[in-house]
């Protein structure tokens, strides 16, 4: 099982598209509209995000936004055997939102309920498709129940923020042919250097008392397995977390619940009006270079106090050169190490929330590799030190927002 795409429901899809392009270095891939909904597609490396906003009150996006602020509505997974996955999921309580559909012999897909109002599109793909091709098929399939209008064309997209021409090819989205023939569209990502490689993980926040229920749900329905447990706290604020992984792929799904009334997880749940995706981690091979690039584009990150680096360096001085320590502190990246393998470093940094509410944010993560006894070892899982540092960084932001008193820290 692998991450395929993540779908956001937002108030203004074109504006969010421009943010992804100008501040996160994504490419605008496609644009579509039907009677009620406008949709944009952005991509970087193998990462694909779908952004939808309402054009009328009849849009399913408008209905969803009455229940929640802008955020993630669907996480799509690529699977090896869709029928088997669907059978297991429905046997253990997942509801079918879209039954299995097949496009010739190269693509099958379906949609089920996830935790809370989250949904999961499941995709079995035998023939490689570009982002644009797969989006076209899935989007028109979903739009068939929404009195679909012809899709629009995205050609030579120009970001109003950067006023910089982006290399979008003359790919025509099919207008009338419901058979959806596959075109020769090639993603512009293949012709430019991507900042990110893939989605590393997505984090789900659930209500107090629901952690074990959510863990069991994903374990039973989709075959996830618990890997790590965390209990993170300061004097007055705490959370509990279980990291879920899938044995047949790279998908990781940590699940958090609040362990105190003023926990940042509770603040998220209040703002989100229920469970939802707290953050999405974007994996990169050079986090220091990428952070430097994105800061120059104006992307705001959570600040890290200098005391974090002085204490970390005191404990692990010999792990890095002076130049590396300086670069890490300048970029304000969090650092952790694989146990007993100092070269297998875990480097992470977190953005400020991307919406008005203190809900969804992004993580940038690099899992460095090391050679041990002739074998290449990559940093796995999640470091408790970085988790604690993130928790404290968000608490400092809570103080600024007035949702946590300074004397509670």
Could you characterize the architecture of this molecule?
- This protein has 409 residues and is an alpha+beta fold.
- It has 2 domains: 2-191, Roll (2,3-Dihydroxybiphenyl 1,2-Dioxygenase, domain 1); 198-408, 2,3-Dihydroxybiphenyl 1,2-Dioxygenase, domain 1 (Roll).
- Mean pLDDT is 82; it is low at 145-192.
- The chain contains 10 helices and 18 strands.
- The protein is globular, with a radius of gyration of 21 Å.
- The two termini are 40 Å apart.
- The protein has an 8-stranded mixed sheet, sandwiched between helices. Strands 10-11-12-9-13-16-15-14 form an 8-stranded mixed sheet, with helices on both faces. Strands 17-18 form a two-stranded antiparallel sheet.
Give a topology summary.
Elements: E1 2-9, H1 13-24, E2 27-33, E3 37-44, E4 47-54, H2 60-67, E5 71-78, H3 82-91, E6 96-103, E7 107-113, E8 119-125, H4 131-143, E9 198-205, H5 211-222, E10 224-233, E11 238-246, E12 252-258, H6 264-272, E13 276-283, H7 287-296, H8 306-316, H9 322-331, E14 334-338, E15 341-350, E16 361-367, E17 369-372, E18 375-378, H10 384-401
Parallel strand pairs: 1-4, 5-8, 9-12, 13-16
Antiparallel strand pairs: 1-5, 2-3, 3-4, 6-7, 7-8, 9-13, 10-11, 11-12, 14-15, 15-16, 17-18
Alpha-beta content class: alpha+beta
| Fraction in helix | 25-40%
Radius of gyration computed on alpha carbons:
21 Å
State the fourth-level CATH superfamily of the largest domain.
Answer: 2,3-Dihydroxybiphenyl 1,2-Dioxygenase, domain 1
**Oligomeric description of these chains:** single chain
